[in-house]
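A quick aside before the break. I want you to see a complete sequence-to-structure record at least once, exactly as it would be stored in a machine-readable document. Don't worry about memorizing anything.
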Amino acid sequence: MNTTSHPSLPRRAFLASAATVTAFAALKPSTVFGADANTRLDIGLIGCGGRGSWIADLFVGTGKYRLVACADYFRDRVDAVGGKHGIDPARRYTGLSGYQRLLEGKLDAVVIETPPHFHAPQAAAAVEAGKHVFVAKPIAVDVPGCRSIAESGRRATAKKQVFLVDFQTRANPLFREALRRIRKGDMGNVVMVEAHYPWSSGGRDLPPPTVEEQLRRWYNVKALSGDFIVEQAIHALDVATWVLDSDPVRAQGLGGQKLRPKGSIWDHFAVNYEFASGVPLSFTCIQTIPEMRDEITCRAYGSEGYFFGDYFSNVWIRGNEPYPGGNVGNLYTDGAVANILEFHQAILAGRCDNPTVAPSVRSNLTAILGREAGYRGGELTFADLLKANEKLEIDLRGLKA
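That is the input. The structure line, written in tokens, reads:
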């Protein structure tokens, strides 16, 4: 199956080799449970587009993995990744079912970097095949997909397999410490939360005309990406739901296509959520505004203080029990590297509690609730969203198996 250049990649400019080397050095693990922590694991990559090829470099760069197989719908992509990493041509798989043939081979783990539409079935197949799973966010584009990922996480735990979802903020020590303090009560009771995702890029191209071209430019296709709020802005909602630690009750949404052409994904959402005990979350995301400052921010106001966290700058808590926090640095790369190394550690140590799955399902469902409320231009309850269980479909007929 395919993937393409991640839509956020160009704006971040986070690929400097020096920063990546620094991340590797800072996050190097020690020996775990008597096993050599430098033991290399054999992995397969499913999705060889922009982010897939980028994260493959990070996995291999740690020195703890061998990339021995890859799969993508497109031949040019598997050959680019396969050639770079010396993968046997016989283990470079193409077509819609390429990932299934990859899973039949000898592997310790798989890395799933395909369009989000395919994450749930590919993860389920990987768990069934006995592989450890590292999967990109978002985990799914619809409620059935989220439920499938939740079940795959449970099955992985039962089968003693590791299943990790790659949210970079959750891997950052500053965010982790701030959230630990919030859980401890340093901020008092949460009163209100805000989350925002303004992005200067995004594009205003017409939707791809053919299904094959849609696979190459999947971000622009709702059924493949889940729309802007699910594919990208989920970063801000993930931190917000991390703070709130509960499912939403309902959402009131607006949004639309003021800048993107008809038939593409939406370019803005404004959603007001209600969480447990009536706590409100105010959320906005917008793209394709030239010269706008990019942010992925969350602010939480408590009875004893308030929290601020930004993917691109700082994390802190101010109030009666302040936490100075600090600058998160190169979170896009460093967070991914931290997750890659923790994945390795968990596999060697046999830690299969898989704590990233449940919060990823929660934030993904929260983003889907906001999307569907926005589409309706009104209110939607979480209970009704789950009851409807609607699936986003795409017609893949005519594509090579």
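Two observations worth writing down. The first strand starts at residue 41 and ends at 46. Residues 170-329+360-388 form a domain with the Dihydrodipicolinate Reductase; domain 2 fold (CATH 3.30.360.10). We'll return to this after the break.
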